[in-house]
Structures are given as C-alpha cells and as structure tokens.
Write a structure and sequence with these properties.
The strands form five sheets. A five-stranded mixed beta sheet has the order 6-14-13-8-9. Strands 5-7-10 form a three-stranded antiparallel beta sheet, with no helix packed on it. A two-stranded parallel sheet has the order 1-2. With about 400 residues, the protein is an alpha+beta fold. A hairpin with a 5-residue loop joins strand 13 and strand 14. It starts with 11 loop residues before the first helix and ends with a helix. Helices cover about 30% and strands about 20% of the residues.
Amino acid sequence: EGFDREHMRLPEQQERLIAAVCAANPRTVVVLANGAPVEMPWVDAPAAILEAYLGGQATGAAVVDVLFGDVEPSGRLAETFPVCQADVPSDPYFPGEPRQVQYREGLFVGYRYYDSAGVAVRFPFGHGLGYTSFAYGALRLAAESIALGEDVEVRVAITNTGVRAGAEVVQVYVRRPGTRIVRPEKELRGFAKVRLAAGESTEVAVSLGGRAFAHYDVARRGWEVEAGAFEILVGSSAESIHATATIVVGVAAAAEEVAGEVAGPDPWAPDDDRFAARLGRPIPAPDPAHPFHRNSTFGDLGATRAGRRLQAIILRAARSQTAKMADGNLALQKMFDRATLEAPLRSAAQVSGGKISLAIVDAVIDMLNGDWGRALRRVATRTRRESR
C-alpha cells in the first residue's frame, strides 16, 4: 500500500486501453478501483466514470447492479480529485527527507486549499452523480443571530426532479467574510443524506452547533469564535453552492467593528521564511540517518560503508525467504524488498523467534556506529547472564 504510487497517474497501459476502447465505442463506462485520487487526462473520452474505490469481495456484484441501473449510485467524493499532481499543495514537499516531511499546507488540506487558492480541480469534494436530478429551494435559518456557543438549525427544500428515485447529500458549509485570522474560504460543518421518489419534495434540516463557527486559537489553547457575520452555504459539493444565508454570531461583539487588517485566506506558505513564521520557529533540519539506533530502518544502513555490507546480507537472507512467494514476479519481489528496507532494526529481534535478542541488535548498532567497546560490553554482559 503506497509503495508503488510514485505518481498519481494510472499505469500507462491502462490509459492506452481506455483511449482505444473509447475510440471504438464512445458509450464506454470506465470503472475505477483505486484507493486514492488519480489523474484523468482521458476524462472526456468515456460516456461515464464510476468510482468504485476498494470495495472488497462484493465489489463486482455491486458494480454490475449500478451499471445495469438496478441500484441508483448515491455516493459522494470524500476527497478532491485534482487535475494533475502538480496542483496538489504538498507535491513539492512530498515525500521529503527520509526522516522529515514538511506539512506546509497547515489547515489548507483538501478542498480547503483548492477552494481558498482558486485552483481548478477535476472533481470537487462532495461531488457525485446518479440517475436522477435534484433542485434546491430557499434556505431558512431558525434565527438571524445567535449568541456565542449557541446552536442554529438550517433548513432547505429539496425536490427530486428526475424520473426515478434517488438520494442527495445536502452539504452545509460555513464562511466568515472579512476574517482577521488565517482560515479556509469555507468549511463543511454539517450534511444530511435524503432519499426521494421521483417528483417528491421535502425539507432537509441540519443542526449546526456552536463549534461550527469556531476556530482553534493556538495562543489561548482553545476554541474561539470570531464574532460577527457568517455565511451559511448549502450545496451538493464544495463547488456547487445552491443557497446562501447570513447569520450574526455573538450579537454584542458583532455590533462593534474590530479595527485591524483583514487577514483573508493564506492557503500556502511557498517559501521557507513564511513557513518558519507559521511554525513560530526555524524549520528544523532533518535527523541524519547516522548514527543508527533501534528505530533506524534497514534502508538507513546505506548511509555507511559497513551498513551497506550488512544491508546486502540482510536483503539476500530476506529474498531467500520471499523468493518462493514471489515466484519470479519482479514487481512482487520489489514489494518484498521495500518491506524489508522499511522495517526498523529492532524488528530483527521481533521476527527471529528468540534467536536474536534486542541486546544483540543494540550491539550490532554500536559496531555500525563505531563504538566497538560498548558493543563488546553488551555481548559480555549477555554471555554472563546466559551462563548462570
């Protein structure tokens, strides 16, 4: 899982297959079985795309039911599908150093980044189609203003305008115009799934608690509300907003405009200085691979000449155990090798069945670090204990 994902594209032969089949028959449906978003430069070629994710053993039967129309697909994307990998905010900094990954996006993960930065996406968070359509009516709030920490109920009328039954996921987002803190453009704060027959209408209610308007104040170490006017947006995805209303939170405080510059969204820290300012300290240097310790990996051993020799011995020993399972499959053998190299040194004691103790692991680590005296003392101590 993850070891073979060096990019976000499908394997090249699969993209060629999609192009060839769609050229022969434009009424092609592409069914994706994937664990995360993929690039889709071929998105306009098929008539439809069904995102099946990794559904387990019953996936095949479920996909057949959807393709033949026996079941109305009503899922919604819980993640954003970018146009390409370069649009992902973490792309320049991932996978990073062997012992450090910089999460420069901060609060702006997923749709919060694309929405705030105005970056176009392939499919937005919350998106999903079915075999029917829905219309949104007026948005009603239980109150025009609430006190800090108070709940409010959001109601919106939904009508199934299609010719068959289906389900819609009503999504409620909250936005703070003119904010003076760094926060996303808008954030999902509630949702409800409603099933309607063809032509049926209903009013969907979603309750927003006091935390729906709050942000975490790092300095105060608690949740705070920036009192004032908030926008409540109801839609069918992060991009498809159908109704909006305004509510004032913290009536007394909202009556006075707070002086100061409007912060607005700050979705990305593109340089070291801004990222360090956000951290509140200099960017820490990655921990070096050497000297080694119990949590060092067998892959880390490549940092020294002696370590590389031991690493080669360990890989040969591991391959003698996995060769039969790989049975000549080079891709599978590569996966086994990666698993070996990513294992911590302490795992040698855990998988040896008692043949290798942690004391022996520590002694080998001492030798690799050049501390032969300490290594010999460990071995002598273990020998005395075993002789008693």
